[in-house]
Design brief:
The complex is a heterodimer of chains A (about 675) and B (about 120).
Chain A lengths: L4 E2 L5 E2 L15 H4 L7 E6 L4 E5 L3 H7 L3 H11 L13 E5 L13 E6 L6 E6 L3 H7 L2 E7 L6 E6 L2 E6 L8 H11 L6 E4 L2 H4 L7 E3 L3 E3 L4 H7 L2 E7 L9 H16 L4 H7 L4 H8 L3 E2 L4 E2 L2 H5 L3 H4 L3 E5 L9 E5 L9 E3 L3 H7 L8 H14 L3 H16 L5 H4 L9 H12 L4 H5 L3 H8 L9 E2 L2 E2 L9 H9 L18 H8 L13 H18 L16 H12 L5 H21 L12 H4 L14 H15 L10 H6 L3 H9 L8
Parallel strand pairs in A: 3-8, 9-14
Antiparallel strand pairs in A: 1-2, 3-4, 5-6, 5-8, 6-7, 9-10, 11-12, 11-14, 12-13, 15-16, 17-18, 18-19, 20-21
Helix pairs in contact in A: 3-24, 8-23, 13-15, 14-17, 15-19, 20-22, 22-24, 22-26
Chain B lengths: L2 E5 L9 H11 L9 E5 L5 E5 L13 E4 L2 E4 H4 L31 H5 L5 E5 L1
Antiparallel strand pairs in B: 1-6, 2-3, 4-5
The chains are: A alpha+beta (about 675), B alpha+beta (about 120).
């Protein structure tokens, strides 16, 4: 019987070293000389102010490699499922990747994980910019925040010197002012930061963590977790370097990897347009949702708010650290009501939730909204979905001006949309209800409001109408953290029949209208995405985004040259499956089972109302069949959707099977 | 005929790959602090790489602003000297000697080799 140590304060601690009992241990990191290539763990107990540094555990490194792998394994160890995510018991985890700070393409990402205040289950999000490289130059790779600070603080990581500093004078300030003030008082203009704005401070359930001024770890309310811990910001300055084990080989591999990205099919368009290039394709397909999925936008409408409408305001292209794709932009508005507004960004996932889904086709308002959500620190997906539901409630008379404090929630009224950003962040009036997210707000309102919210596992869905895209809708259903389109949506489904024939030999491959074969595509894509998340390489440089980009082959070669290991591509794929299955098991311990893999709401329960895909709908039986095919591929039980003991043991997670069994979540006889 | 590195700031995307290529060339490791080229970003319209000149241990007195086109720029930001008044070059006081030497003779600047946008070009003087 595995040993679980129950601590006095109700926390429980599962010793990490149990993993080694399940399968053979290879060389320790120290024996392999790996320690000099891998950053340290920084542990911050915000309740006591105690800060400690540890070398990363051998087992963790060998079996989870880095990034999301570390976070998920540590979450399993240190977070008790079912606790209040806004309580001091929650643990906030942040991990760079093992290639962070090097010249490996787009190796700039940082994964953030904790129990999500929005869903109540494990949540995770990802941010680029330059935080992870700076963290690695300072000598760290993993951060673990426990407890709650009695007063608002920020963490200052200045190479070896790590200290908590008061943030009382910053509490209430937007991200913009916070970043500038902290850089000034630390006399470090080059410091790079992760901060929360008023949304995180006010525990808006979908508050995000903002990287410097304009990048975000958007989903799952990680900003609210920071806010609940009184942690305003984390600033880092790293004047050290990252060493690699085999420098010449590493450089050669990195150069080839950058070339692969630049010569990929995706590069020419994506390096100019970024994610906002996706809008027009969606409209042509007939999936660009308007009015909370009540109708679809025409190509002409969507062009106003996609790249075609945005580009006139772009002043230059912009990259995250170490990325040659440079898919983002600097922008400036010079006329109209928002003249003088300037900033960085404009991703698809921002514009769509401020414009088309809300029937707003005035793109300068989206740029203004972008600056507001970055400054207040709020996830645009949940914001947009909360408003979309609320505007439909208003349209259908479920709520009136009496409920909204006098606001008329009219589709397309961008002044109202922008006004609500501040109201939600400050939890003012009707904003206080929407700050709870669409699902909780619907429950409070009652009167059938829940019928107009589309979600899975408590996370709202994409801005596009995915009911006609059968692989993607399956990926939204099975994603471990809830409906997230950045998980496993097969890229092929968004190509035209001619493009699919050209790329894959047959228009049938990835045909969005079909369920057949989609379980396989979604499973494989999920592994691709997980590999990106393990190495914390931006997914848009990898085969997750498009065939022929960086995959496990290139990443494992660079990894081996960097940290002096000899892993194979198959090893990496097993690590990916291990993390994926571990996360699923963790969610199962919170009660997530097969019933939670069906997306609820109008997107899946009704047919498409208009456009080229009018009448299309999700067939519940065919969806169930595809879901069960997925379970077979993943090794999850056909009836419950919980990973089987056989699968868990194969991945060295026998102790997880023991936990599930003890908690009655595993069917013992399978 | 000598060569120099021509910088076109309008093409700079702030990726920092030049910093990594340079530090690797200098010390075989990756880190902006060991790079002789630093990307400055005023978070407005200006992003450009500055190639560090010879180390100086005193601040100069010529702190004027420069107007280029419509933009008023703080001269200190653009100045190549590794001056102690510039926070980004502070740590160079401890590692004096990091300055651009075109990656050797004949010149083969790695920043130019790696720049993904052509913002850095090797040209005849």
């Amino acid at each position: 019987m595995p040993e679980i140590v129950l601590l006095d304060d109700g926390k429980f601690h599962v010793p990490l070293n149990r993993v080694s009992q399940q399968y053979e241990k290879s060389q320790t990191s120290e024996e392999a000389g790996m320690n000099q290539y891998i950053g340290k763990m920084l542990r911050v107990d915000l309740s006591t102010g105690e800060i400690s540094k540890e070398a990363l555990d051998d087992e963790l490194v060998q079996n989870y490699i880095g990034g999301r792998g570390f976070n998920s394994r540590l979450a399993y160890n240190e977070i008790k499922p079912g606790i209040d995510p806004l309580s001091p018991e929650n643990v906030l985890l942040m991990a760079a990747g093992p290639l962070g700070g090097t010249i490996a393409p787009a190796s700039n990402r940082l994964s953030i994980a904790a129990l999500s205040p929005q869903t109540g289950i494990l949540g995770y999000a990802n941010v680029g910019d330059s935080f992870a490289p700076s963290l690695r130059w300072a000598g760290y790779e993993q951060m673990v925040f426990t407890g709650k600070s009695p007063e608002p603080v920020y963490l200052w990581i200045d190479d070896d010197k790590v200290e908590l500093r008061t943030a009382k004078h910053l509490w209430g300030k937007g991200v913009h002012e916070t970043v500038h003030q902290i850089r000034k008082e630390l006399e470090s203009p080059e410091a790079t930061l992760l901060s929360i704005g008023p949304a995180g401070e006010n525990l808006v359930r979908f508050a995000c963590v903002v990287g410097n001024l304009h990048r975000a770890a958007g989903r799952c309310g990680m900003g609210a977790v920071m806010g609940s811990k009184n942690l305003k910001s984390i600033a880092v300055r790293g004047t050290g370097t990252v060493k690699v084990a085999r420098p010449q080989e590493f450089m050669k591999l990195a150069k080839a990897a950058h070339h692969k990205v630049k010569n990929s099919v995706l590069y020419p368009e994506f390096s100019i347009k970024g994610t906002s290039g996706m809008f027009v394709g969606h409209a042509r397909m007939g999936i660009a949702s308007v009015w909370n999925h009540q109708r679809v936008a025409t190509v002409e409408e969507i062009s106003k708010v996609g790249y075609e409408g945005q580009s006139q305001y772009f002043t230059r292209s912009l990259a995250c650290y170490s990325c040659s794709m440079h898919c983002s932009h600097r922008w400036a508005i010079s006329d109209g009501p928002y003249a003088g507004e300037k900033g960085s960004g404009m991703e698809y996932g921002v514009s769509v939730f401020l414009t088309s889904i809300l029937g707003n086709f005035y793109v300068p308002s989206a740029f203004k909204g972008l600056n507001l959500v970055n400054d207040y620190g709020m996830d645009t997906t949940e914001f947009g979905c909360a408003l979309a539901a609320a505007f439909e409630w208003y349209q259908k008379g479920i709520i009136t001006k009496e409920d909204t404090g006098g606001m008329a929630l009219e589709w397309g009224n961008y002044e109202t949309i922008l006004d609500l950003i501040g109201k939600i962040a400050r939890r003012e009036g009707f904003g206080d209800l929407l700050a709870e997210g669409a699902i909780r707000a619907a429950k409070v309102i009652g009167k059938g409001a829940e019928k107009f919210v589309t979600d899975c596992k408590g996370l709202s869905t994409h801005g596009a109408d995915m009911r006609s895209v059968k692989g993607t809708i399956l990926s939204l259903g099975i994603c471990n953290k809830g409906a997230d389109v950045m998980d496993a949506a097969p890229a092929a489904e968004f190509l035209s029949p001619e493009e699919r024939k050209h790329m894959f030999g047959s228009a049938d491959y990835g045909d969005p209208s079909k369920y057949t074969g989609k379980a396989r595509l979604v499973f494989d894509k999920g592994i691709d995405g997980m590999i990106g998340d393990i190495f914390q390489i931006c997914k848009f440089n990898t085969s997750w985004a498009w065939p022929g980009m960086l995959d496990a082959n290139e990443l494992v070669d660079m990894y081996n040259a960097a940290v002096c290991t000899s892993m194979t591509k198959e090893d990496v794929m097993m690590v990916a499956e291990r993390i994926h299955t571990l996360e699923r098991a963790f969610q199962a311990r919170s009660g997530i089972t097969k019933k939670d893999d069906f997306i609820k709401g109008p997107m899946t329960e009704e047919p498409v109302a208009d456009g080229p895909l009018k009448g299309e709908r999700v067939d519940p039986e065919k969806y169930r069949k595809a879901l069960e095919e997925y379970y077979e591929l993943a090794g999850w039980d056909m009836e419950t959707g919980v990973p089987t003991r056989a699968k868990l043991e194969k991945l060295g997670l026998g102790f997880v099977a023991d936990d599930l069994e003890r908690e009655g979540k595993l069917l013992v006889f399978r | 005929m000598s060569k120099r590195i021509k910088i076109d700031g309008s093409l700079c995307v702030g990726c920092g790959i030049c910093e990594l290529a340079c530090s690797f060339n200098k010390v075989g490791e990756f880190g902006r602090s060991r790079s002789a080229i630093r990307v400055f970003d005023n978070e407005e319209n200006d992003i450009f790489p500055v190639i560090i000149g010879q180390f100086t241990d005193v601040e100069c007195t010529a702190k004027v602003d420069v107007v280029i086109g419509k933009h008023e720029l703080d001269w200190c930001t653009m100045c190549r000297e590794s001056c102690p008044a510039k926070a980004a070059f502070k740590e160079l006081k401890n590692t004096a000697g990091i300055y651009c030497n075109m990656c050797g003779n004949p010149p083969d600047p790695q920043c130019v080799q790696w720049c993904p946008t052509g913002a850095l070009m090797l040209v005849e003087s």
